[in-house]
Design a protein that fits this description.
Elements (H helix, E strand, L loop, with lengths): L6 H16 L5 E12 L2 E12 L3 E5 L6 H8 L7 E6 L2 E2 L5 H7 L1 E3 L12 H13 L3 H6 L2 H18 L15 H13 L5 E5 L7 H15 L4 E5 L3 H7 L2 E6 L2 E6 L1 H6 L1 H7 L12
Parallel strand pairs: 3-8, 3-9, 6-7, 7-8
Antiparallel strand pairs: 1-2, 1-4, 4-5, 9-10
Helix pairs in contact: 4-6, 4-7, 7-8
The protein binds adenosine-5'-triphosphate and magnesium ion (MG).
């Protein structure tokens, strides 16, 4: 098969790759090798290695400034790594622009909501789809744009309903309660049809009820065969959601393991000493 970059060919390649890897055991859909990112003299990431299997919900935790958002920024192509390699579905992606990486199916949300605040819920999601689908010149000439527009709107409405935002479809984003704004952030990411979704602090600033609702939504998204990486300070939720957790501290990978191990790991407890994050699930 040629090196065509259209969405159809990329999907076919990904499916072939997953099929092939499925025969040989668990599939690493995302691999980070020796990743470093320097800002001047500051090492935000230092020689980080990470392997995420297809279908996982992977927690990425660590104290403030540990490098979690930087890791997402580098993986998603917002920043170029200073060193190291990133493979997505077997394909090397470090150095590709962010829009290209998103088009391949590796999509992120932001620590702070990245919405068009003056747009309605529907417009936010349809704009995201437009940017993802990018109507070709051929479609413009062939007059297929109206149909494409209809398809985009239908798909956007489907996503909005899936994310429990149907009753707010015509509401302007800035008027939404915080929990719904975060849900809209995820809806915008879903408009890009991700295979891997990077969620940066999806529960921040939420009430307990909003958190419960968002956790249910994340599980629902995961149920659509989407691999999820989640950066979050809410330890109770991370421990509940993730089967495996990677801990960053001062830009390095401190330890990885299942929640029960991470909670009791002395290095992790030490890294969190003096922070407000509570590692023990049983505590409130
Ligand atoms: N664009 C940038 N320019 C300079 N320094 C940066 C930049 N982005 C991040 N840093 C620095 O890199 C380090 C890691 O920051 P990062 O935002 O990745 O941490 P984090 O783990 O996401 O923290 P938090 O939990 O507070 O969100 C910090 O010291 C931060 O100040
Ligand atoms: Mg961060």
């Amino acid at each position: 098969m040629g090196a065509c970059d259209c969405a159809g060919c990329q999907d076919a390649l990904l499916a072939l790759w997953i099929d092939k890897m499925g025969e040989t055991g668990p599939v690493a859909i995302l691999e980070v090798k020796g990743l470093s990112k320097y800002f001047g003299g500051l090492a935000a990431l230092k020689d980080v290695h990470l392997t995420v299997r297809e279908g996982e919900i992977r927690g990425i935790i660590g104290p403030n400034g540990a490098g979690k958002t930087t890791l997402f920024n580098v993986i998603s192509g917002m920043y170029r790594p200073s060193a190291g390699e990133i493979f997505y579905a077997g394909r090397r992606i470090d150095g590709l622009p962010a829009n290209k990486i998103a088009a391949l199916g590796l999509v992120r949300t932001f620590q702070r909501t990245a919405l068009y605040h003056e747009f309605t819920v529907l417009r936010n999601v349809t704009v995201a789809r437009h940017l993802h689908v990018r109507e070709s010149l051929f479609q413009v000439i062939a007059g297929n744009l109206k149909q494409k527009e209809r398809e985009n709107t239908e798909k956007a409405l489907e996503i909005i309903e899936f994310m429990g935002l149907k009753h707010l479809v015509d509401e302007v984003a800035v008027n939404l309660p915080h929990g719904y704004q975060r849900a809209l952030g995820v809806a915008i990411a879903l408009a890009c049809e991700p295979k891997v979704l990077l969620l940066d602090e999806p529960l921040t600033g939420m009430t307990p009820t909003e958190k419960g609702h968002m956790i249910d939504l994340i599980r629902k998204v995961h149920g659509k065969d989407i691999t999820i990486l989640i950066v979050e300070h809410d330890m109770r939720s991370v421990m509940e959601l993730c089967e495996y957790i990677s801990v960053l501290d001062f830009g390095t990978l401190l330890v990885e393991g299942p929640p029960a191990e991470i909670q009791n790991n002395e290095d992790v407890i030490r890294a969190y000493l003096g922070t407000e994050d509570i590692l023990t699930v049983g505590q409130s």
